[in-house]
Amino acid sequence: MRLRPEVLRALRARSCLTCVLMLGAFSLQDAVAQTSNFEFRESLSFEDDPSSSFELPSETDAQPFEQEVEEGLQRPSARPPVSTVGQQLTGTSRSSRAPKFSERVEAVSRLSRPVGGGGIDDEGVFDGETVQDRPVGIQLGSLRLTPSFDAGLGWTDNVEQANGGTPDGFYEVDAAVGVVSDWERHELGLELRGSLRAFFNEPDNNQPVITGRGNVRLDLSDLTVADVEGVYSFSREERSSAENEATTGRTNSVQEIGGRFSLSRQVSVVQLRGGIGVDRTVYGGQMSSSQPRDNTVFDATLRTSFDNGATFEPYLEGGFLVRKYDEDCSGDPSCFDRTSRGYFAKVGMSIDRGPKLRGEFGVGYRAEYLDDDRLDALQGFIFDGAFVWSPTRRDTVTVSGATSFAGTNISGASGSILYAGDVRYAHQFTQDLVGDVQLGYTYRTYQGVDIVEQEGTGSFGLVWAFSKDAALLSRYTFRAFESSTAGSNYTSSLIEAGLRIRR
What we know:
The chain is mostly beta strands. It has one domain: Beta Barrel (Maltoporin, Chain A), CATH 2.40.170. It has helices at about 5-25, 30, 60-65, 85-90, 100-110; strands at about 70, 75, 140, 145-155, 170-180, 185-200, 205-220, 225-235, 255-265, 270-285, 295-305, 310-325, 340-350, 355-370, 380-390, 395-405, 415-430, 435-445, 450-465, 470-485, 490-500. The strands form two sheets. The protein has an 18-stranded antiparallel barrel. A two-stranded antiparallel sheet has the order 1-2. It is globular and about 60 Å long. It comes from Pseudovibrio denitrificans. This is Beta-barrel porin 2.
């Protein structure tokens, strides 16, 4: 479960360079930032008086956030829907847009959403965003519209993201529009986003991504809430993946469509949440296998948590699922019937120390039993969770992990299990200059066949807001991929810079 020594050395060298750049930037902070005497938040010792965990911010501490109000004009923070932590970690391929730091902070904040209320505002927690161009939105009655547009140029030494890849330059664009409600009760959130990374000499490796997301929260009573969520995404498959069936030209397209209905109820100190969901995956393009991979997963879940206002709150979650493939075998002995039924169970703990530390973590087990007796059960331990730690008002750290099960049509394989985790750190040099560092690792194993894929990533980015609506973006990303499949290992470096406009 480890990357080869030479790959680790390459990743370590670039990670060290990233840390050196950040430390060098820190040393220049006094020269470029406003004078600030901020200190670390109070100790995380849980023996302290609980009332002492919430400190009153001084004028100096609160200055970066109070600057959102200038000349009597308040700049509220519009919040379109964001994907969950698990979706951000396991649903984002190398051909997809990486989630922003602020999206991760928002996703963790929504883990602590109480019944009958919206997401918890982590006042005083730096979310990785610049202050001057924080989106205000366009008010349309009781709805707020939040448009944004990014455009830039970049270069990579491995366009194909595969063994023996070639260098090339590219341009990229990213356009999004979000809609959020401004109602006293209930909540509506929508976001539509499209992006394209187009290479100058290798158009077959262009990376189009389209995502749509919506959610409606209905406050049925003070103690009962109903949520309806929907999501759609389009991207292209990774060329180095064992699942890739396109030998030439463009890789196959992947479309994911999902929906979920859930009902939450607060009963004394117990919070109950039940839900049903459906997730469909459709592949398009070249198919070397006679058995398509298109499949749909139906699930029903129930979660019980103890919401008594304590710092630590345990929870128990479980559910049942059915995975149905579009293509049935119809008596063909050479066909594998991968339709499956299964369950999962998980126990975990939520932690809420206000603006200092918040999140949850759970471990458990999941199993899918396939109808075809020739195939092993797709089963294994699962873990997921995320924490946001804010040691100072200018620094935030996130630690996240997730597990995902996926179907396959590889001969003899039951499916794959993906374990993913990352650590992110964001620092506010000034109100208009922020930087972040990210380190991530994924491990995918296929059950029934000897295929293992591992990937390590590291990146460093800077954002400078030079006006109330525009900012300059820059990022460097290093990636090391290793597979037990011969000829699939590769490394890549990518550097990009561009302009962001949002309202």
